[in-house]
Design a protein that fits this description.
Elements (H helix, E strand, L loop, with lengths): L3 H17 L6 H14 L2 H22 L8 H14 L19 E2 L5 E2 L3 H14 L2 H21 L4 H15 L4 H4 L5 H19 L3 H9 L20 H12 L5 E7 L21 E5 L3 H10 L4 E7 L7 E4 L2
Parallel strand pairs: 3-4, 3-5
Antiparallel strand pairs: 1-2, 5-6
């Protein structure tokens, strides 16, 4: 992924270039400035350009560098919310064997649902509904964020610098970074913050009702800005779990994977995550709760292949094996 220090240095060079070179006489650069000014003179086009650069740039990174997989607890919780909303529900009924399916940031009583506010889940659900892929919602929220930042700058600086600032923000935070390459979110709240500030700056200059609506109507969105920095770069179980899922889906059979944790299990290396409809899912992940409770689970899912995943045992014992 792009390192922040590298990106900021590149943005600094860009700013210096566009501040100093106009003082000199370079015909080629003059033509570049004229093209930039032509776009910048049309704010709607400039906003759309920043949004499109973010959206298609994010897709290009995912396709050419690495396809994002969920890695941390929060992402799986958001994906549960997305799956719930995409099924047309606000929450899900509690499963009769819900103790086997307990996991981080997920409620099972009184209903089965993500613990988080609905915004990020709704964004991911939009991607599922539109394209069958929650990442599309992530990329759309990134595009909204970049367009909002560009619009914000139009209320603060000259048109040329508003466009250049919007492009700089897009390149810095919205293509090859956690903002658009994880399921954790943040872009939607950042877009709300940009719209709020843009409305505030416009109110200071020219008090208009529509700017007041933007300012106060979206101000609460900024209160919910996830801390998306703390776990970025942690490998956790994301890639290993994704590879296990891919291998199981090669078979037309439905599966039940019982996860058994060993003495060296790291708390944050969680494997038990499920979709909104556990009974209908191709793979159901469940906690090992001992022979008696497991037998109830096996009877309930009698039509599935049953696997055991050992995690945290070491010595080559970890991995997926048939349960029986």
């Amino acid at each position: 992924m792009l390192q922040p220090s590298d990106a900021w240095f590149a943005m600094l060079l860009l700013a210096v270039a566009f501040a100093v070179l106009p003082l000199t006489s370079y015909p080629a650069f003059d033509r570049v400035l004229k093209a930039i000014d032509a776009i910048a003179s049309r704010p709607a086009l400039a906003v759309a350009l920043c949004a499109a650069l973010s959206f298609f740039g994010s897709i290009a990174v995912a396709l050419t560098v690495a396809w994002p997989v969920p890695r941390v607890h929060d992402e799986f919780s958001y994906l549960l919310a997305a799956d719930t909303f995409a099924h047309g529900r606000l929450t899900n009924p509690t499963h009769p064997l819900w103790q086997h399916f307990e996991s981080f940031h997920i409620f099972h009583e009184p209903t089965y649902a993500s613990k988080y506010p609905p915004a990020q889940g709704a964004v991911l659900a939009l991607g599922i509904v539109l394209a069958g892929e929650p990442l599309v919602g992530v990329w759309l929220s990134g595009a909204l964020m970049c367009g909002a930042i560009c619009w914000l700058l139009y209320g603060v600086v000259s048109q040329r610098w508003a466009l250049l600032g919007g492009i700089a923000a897009t390149l810095q935070i919205a293509i090859a970074t956690k903002w658009t390459q994880t399921y954790w979110g943040g872009a939607l709240a950042a877009a709300g913050g940009a719209l709020m500030l843009g409305g505030a700056f416009r109110l200071v200059r020219h008090a208009r009702p529509r700017d007041a609506v933007v300012l106060f109507g979206l101000s609460r969105d900024v209160e919910y800005l996830p801390d998306i920095h703390t776990a970025w770069g942690y490998d956790l179980t994301g890639p290993r779990r994704a590879e296990t899922v891919r291998s199981l889906l090669l078979s037309p059979n439905r599966d039940l994977v019982v996860v058994r944790y060993g003495p060296h299990h790291v708390l944050h290396h969680e494997w038990v995550y499920n979709g909104a409809d556990i009974d209908a899912s191709e793979i159901a992940w469940a906690r090992d709760m001992g022979p008696a409770e497991n037998q109830r689970l096996f009877e309930y899912f009698r039509d599935r292949r049953i696997w055991l995943y050992r995690e945290g045992f070491g010595g080559g014992e970890d991995g997926l094996t048939p349960y029986f």
